[in-house]
Automatic annotation (TrEMBL):
Quaternary organization: Homotrimer.
Name listed for the protein in its UniProt record: Enoyl-CoA delta isomerase 1, mitochondrial
SUPFAM superfamilies reported for this sequence: ClpP/crotonase
A cellular component term, taken from the record's GO annotations: mitochondrial matrix
Domain of life: Eukaryota
Catalytic reactions of this protein: (3Z)-hexenoyl-CoA = (2E)-hexenoyl-CoA; (2E)-tetradecenoyl-CoA = (3Z)-tetradecenoyl-CoA; (3Z)-octenoyl-CoA = (2E)-octenoyl-CoA; (3Z)-dodecenoyl-CoA = (2E)-dodecenoyl-CoA
E.C. designation(s): 5.3.3.8
Database matches in InterPro entries: ClpP/crotonase-like_dom_sf, Enoyl-CoA_hyd/isom_CS, Enoyl-CoA_hydra/iso
Gene3D superfamilies registered for this protein in UniProt: 2-enoyl-CoA Hydratase, Chain A, domain 1, 6.10.250.170
Organism: Enhydra lutris kenyoni (northern sea otter)
Localisation: Mitochondrion matrix
Function: Key enzyme of fatty acid beta-oxidation. Able to isomerize both 3-cis (3Z) and 3-trans (3E) double bonds into the 2-trans (2E) form in a range of enoyl-CoA species, with a preference for (3Z)-enoyl-CoAs over (3E)-enoyl-CoAs. The catalytic efficiency of this enzyme is not affected by the fatty acyl chain length.
Keyword flag Mitochondrion: yes
Main localization (coarse): mitochondrion
Length: 243
């Protein structure tokens, strides 16, 4: 699955919906057993959630958007397919969440390709299920520091803290993901799937039990004047970077 939403693969409502539909199609076709998730945007895996979906819109839109974000995470996190990410670019916040929801992560060895949950740098907060997904991957202490400081880890550090499983030269990221896949596909499918569910269901259930409350929290939080202002300032900084 090659993500293509130029220029930065931001996860707009439309793009989230496309990803969901693609995932559902693959999951319902018995011929498919695995996905390699990668990017078609040079140097960028994903810039995360689309800030334009969270800025200057109305509460109904925020609620619709957040429901789609939740849905994408739940579907990827619990997918019965083997999902491996071949991370071939910088990978921020919501994009990093997507990679953390995969079964295995290969990152291209380029110092520009940092990844992490950098929400605090924008003046926002990583929701509890983003946090849980990170804790499940790197452990509590590393996650606590990474989340508070909004750290984006370059490849060597991402590997060292366990945010990714392998770092390889850029031109080998897809072939390394394919080689890894062979090991996962050699395991009897039902045993692997049940084990995945055993490991992940408690985390997913936390959100499933509080889905509506989580949407309401998001809408309340994102609608605050101070948060809207912080997002506008951040977007402005991104634009000014060019001049
Ligand atoms: C008490 C609390 C209770 C409850 C709390 C409940 C909920 C919590 C609340 C909120 C949680 C919300 C969670 C959000 C998670 C996210 O994913 S936020 C997004 C974080 N992403 C980033 O910080 C990345 C930002 N982008 C960049 O750093 C760079 O763009 C990047 C390094 C990816 C690429 O750099 P470069 O190649 O130089 O490209 P440009 O920077 O020039 O960008 C090109 C154009 O794209 C626009 N853009 C970039 N990122 C985004 C984005 N995420 N969304 C929308 N648009 C983006 C950028 O502005 C440029 O636009 P232009 O061409 O100037 O029009």
């Amino acid at each position: 699955m090659k993500m293509r939403n130029p220029p930065v693969n931001s996860l707009s409502l439309e793009f989230l919906t496309e990803l969901l539909i693609s995932l559902e199609k693959l999951e319902s076709d018995k011929a498919f057993h695995a996905i390699i998730l990668t990017s078609d945007c040079p140097g960028i895996f994903s810039a995360g959630l689309d800030l334009m979906e969270m800025c200057g819109r109305d509460p109904t839109h925020y609620a619709e958007y957040w429901k789609a974000v939740q849905e994408l995470w739940l579907r990827f996190y619990l997918s019965h397919l083997v999902v491996i990410s071949a991370i071939n670019g910088v990978n921020a916040a919501g994009g990093c969440l997507l990679a953390l929801s995969c079964d295995y992560r290969v990152l291209a060895d380029n110092p520009k390709y940092a990844m992490g949950l950098n929400e605090t740098l924008l003046g926002i907060i990583a929701p509890f299920w983003f946090k849980d997904t990170l804790v499940n991957t790197v452990g509590h202490r590393t996650a606590e520091r990474a989340l508070q400081l909004g750290l984006l880890f370059p490849p060597a550090e991402a590997l060292q803290v366990g945010m990714v499983d392998k770092v390889v030269p850029e031109d080998q990221v897809l072939s390394a993901a394919r080689s890894e896949l062979a090991q996962w596909l050699a395991i009897p499918g039902h045993a692997r799937q049940l084990t995945k569910s055993l490991m992940r269901k408690p985390t997913a259930d936390r959100l499933l039990k509080e889905r509506d409350a989580d949407i309401q929290n998001f809408v309340r939080f994102i609608s605050r004047d101070a948060i809207q202002k912080a997002l506008r300032v951040y977007l402005e900084k991104l634009k000014q970077k060019k001049t």
